[in-house]
Amino acid sequence: MRLSRYFMPILKENPKEAEIVSHRLMLRTGMIRQQSQGIYSWLPLGKRVLDKVNKIIREEQNRSGAIELLMPTLQTAELWQESGRYDAYGKEMLRIKDRQDRPMLYGPTNEEMITDIFRSYVKSYKDLPLNLYHIQLKFRDEIRPRFGTMRSREFMMKDAYSFDLTQEGAVIAYNKMFTAYLRTFDRLGLRAIPMRADTGPIGGELSHEFIILADTGESEVFCHKDFVNFDIPGEDTNFDDAAGLKGIFDKWTSVYAATSEMHDEAAFNAIPEGERLSARGIEVGHIFYFGTKYSEPMGAKVQGPDGKEHAVHMGSYGIGPTRLVPAIIEASHDENGIIWPASVAPFDVVVINMKSGDQACDDACETVYAALSKAGKDVLLDDRDDRAGTKFATADLIGLPVQIIVGPRSIAGGEVEVKDRKTGARETMTVEAAIKRLA
Ligand code: ATP
Ligand code: MG
Ligand code: MG
Ligand code: MG
């Protein structure tokens, strides 16, 4: 992508309304635009990051055996009356009437709808286990939307729903998602800690929130320091091995971790003082096992091996992609801007032309741009007619992992500079060597 033809509306000034660094940087880099309170457009640069986050989420959901579909954002009130949540959900639910005066709502979550899909098709235990997910917009009329897309009213969620004949089966499904989540957050460059959590309006018995430690987080959390060093399950994890998955779950729940709602002061104080971590955190994912809470009232039943009808045991599993993007920035930035982990960077590399219009610089930039693009890299070429200093500042601000700097002096000797955004380390090398390094 040539920056001169791209749409990346960088702001010169720090936006006053932004209270936390991720919000400020997302506005400054032109990743998002607020359209009305708590409702955002994702501009091209932001959309690229969001797509990369969703790609990783999708790959790990698929790896664990979950199957993707897509449900609508608008739902009928009827479905929610069946589960009893239409009245219970309260003011967070945006209620709408269609032209026939039928009560509708913009879905804040999809347990009812997926249960309706399930009951319409699945009749036998032989078709279980089943886990269906989608990545879709949700609406919750948050009382205090803030921090940009961290807590917005319209936001994206990956929500998965598992169906099993028995509680034992549902626990295996839970452990699969638990493991998939550890892998997902790790690939996003984050250390997320699973914490025992309250089940809230989703209801149920077993629940973990996945929390990123950050000073700007809205949750108060307590955990053992050991979490920082726990191994992440590998790519070769066998999701059909129930015992192996239980081993992962047991390990990751073997030491204390809880949000303030579930906090047990005595258990926490039993940890030696130097190993206690009392911090703030951002909830980026949440998983629940809730048994037959929806299947029972909504009649989602299958025939078991005993020939009888059984209400299925369900779980639901959410991740917030539009919250993850700012969470990644909270975890990875410096005074000059964002530092994207390579896995979610909007482009892999920026080629900075220090002197657009200078023939040697232009030619070298085109050579590098063409070669890296051909090698399948996402390359941003800063070919704007602007001062070198402005281009350097932009490159640091938008935080792509690598910068290739092409200047008139070094290119006369056939050389360019390669800068690592994270460490700031610079290396001078030939154009060919730079291409080889990054391709
Ligand atoms: P919170 O405690 O922050 O209000 P929640 O517990 O209500 O979140 P869940 O119902 O557990 O949220 O939804 C699953 C995931 O969806 C959350 O872990 C979070 O990543 C994301 N999410 C929920 N609400 C929002 C929001 N208002 N803006 C952005 N992401 C959200
Ligand atoms: Mg909430
Ligand atoms: Mg919560
Ligand atoms: Mg939650």
Automatic annotation (TrEMBL):
A Pfam family matched in the record: HGTP_anticodon
Entry EC number(s): 6.1.1.15
Domain Aminoacyl-transfer RNA synthetases class-II family profile: 37-341
CC terms in the record's Gene Ontology section: cytosol
Keyword set, alphabetical order: Aminoacyl-tRNA synthetase, ATP-binding, Cytoplasm, Ligase, Nucleotide-binding, Protein biosynthesis
PROSITE patterns: AA_TRNA_LIGASE_II
Localization in the cell: Cytoplasm
Database matches in Gene3D superfamilies: Anticodon-binding domain, Bira Bifunctional Protein, Domain 2
Catalytic activity: tRNA(Pro) + L-proline + ATP = L-prolyl-tRNA(Pro) + AMP + diphosphate
Biological process terms in GO annotation: prolyl-tRNA aminoacylation
InterPro entries cross-referenced by the UniProt entry: aa-tRNA-synt_IIb, aa-tRNA-synth_II, aa-tRNA-synth_II/BPL/LPL, Anticodon-bd, Anticodon-bd_dom_sf, Pro-tRNA-ligase_IIa, Pro-tRNA-synth_IIa_bac-type, Pro-tRNA_synthetase
Keyword Nucleotide-binding among UniProt keywords: yes
Assembly: Homodimer.
NCBIfam families, per the entry: PRK12325.1, proS_fam_II
Protein name per the record: Proline--tRNA ligase
Source organism per UniProt: Rhizobium lusitanum
Name of the coding gene: proS
